[in-house]
Amino acid sequence: ANVTSTAALLQVASEFGVRAFVLGSSGSVYGDALVAGGGDAPVASRETDSTNEPRSPYAASKRSAEVFAFSFWSGNKKNLNTVTVCRIFTVYGPRGRPDMAVFRFINSSLRGKTLCMLGNGDASWRDYAHVGDVARGLLAAMHRTNKKEGRDEGRGTTSVEGKCITSTGSTEDAFSGFATVNVASGEATTLRALIEIVTSACGGDPKDVTRLPGRPGDVGGTFGNVSQAERVLGWRPLVSLRDGIQSTVEWYQSEESISWREP
């Protein structure tokens, strides 16, 4: 569905003269972030990293959609001015998916339930991007120009120079018609740290956690470098995880969230 829907939308965009096309891809195309040699610190994934061995059908479909988008744009440059692939990492925030870890932890913490942590909580991590930052990134991609001129992202005009990496791995001018960027927080957060931040925001005790044996192979995670997004889009994440979780907890406790919550 990811490939066929992308193909259909690109065709329609080309036929109707849409000048900018933004493809929402995923940080999962990288697989697990690498770990620095000799240590346990994760290394942020860059757009130059290999995406030839996706770990899931979902990641494979997202990568396939990226390749198709580049191929389609290459043959339709006159009709499609810019195509920007945004590799979005783990999104959280108000109105997010109830089955995601952040909301499951919030729900348990507010109900006074004990949270369960697999392993020591330090062997796995995620790059948690606030929905507000992600929305700004997508809007910046939509208004991206392929000309070297300033553009307004809602916080002043920014003129950017430099190089970017396309999804094919080639280096092109940052204002070329096709570009790939990571939309992430630029920080790797361990499971232990996430639980501490969530329980603190909910007024609970971060120590009230049941530790369970880790599952074989349950290590690693996602972590995105955002320097290319800064160069190409003039965008960077602004919401810290602690502030983002706090605002998410406040929303979760509001009347607006009642109809959204799981039964």
Average pLDDT, all residues: 84
Report the structural category: alpha/beta
Strand-residue fraction?
Answer: 15-25%
Secondary-structure element string: HEHEEHEEEHEEEEEEHEEHH
- The whole-angstrom Rg is 20 Å
Number of strands: 14
Terminal CA distance reads 29 Å
Strand order of the largest sheet: 1-2-11
Taken from the alpha-carbon principal axes, the silhouette is globular
Fraction of helical residues: 25-40%
Number of helices: 7
Largest sheet: 3 strands, parallel
The parts where pLDDT drops under 50 for at least 5 residues are: 148-173
Q: Report the oligomer.
A: single chain
Polypeptide structure, described:
With 263 residues, the chain is of the alpha/beta class. 32% of the residues lie in helices and 19% in strands. The radius of gyration is 20 Å and the shape is globular. The model is unreliable at 148-173 (pLDDT under 50).
State the gist of this model.
The protein has 263 residues and is an alpha/beta fold. The protein is 32% helix and 19% strand.
SSE order and pairing:
Elements: H1 2-15, E1 20-26, H2 57-74, E2 82-88, E3 90-92, H3 101-110, E4 115-118, E5 124-126, E6 128-130, H4 131-142, E7 151-152, E8 157-158, E9 163-165, E10 171-173, E11 178-183, E12 189-190, H5 191-201, E13 209-212, E14 220-221, H6 227-233, H7 241-252
Parallel strand pairs: 1-2, 2-11, 3-6, 4-13, 5-14
Antiparallel strand pairs: 5-12, 7-8, 9-10
Helix pairs in contact: 1-2, 3-5
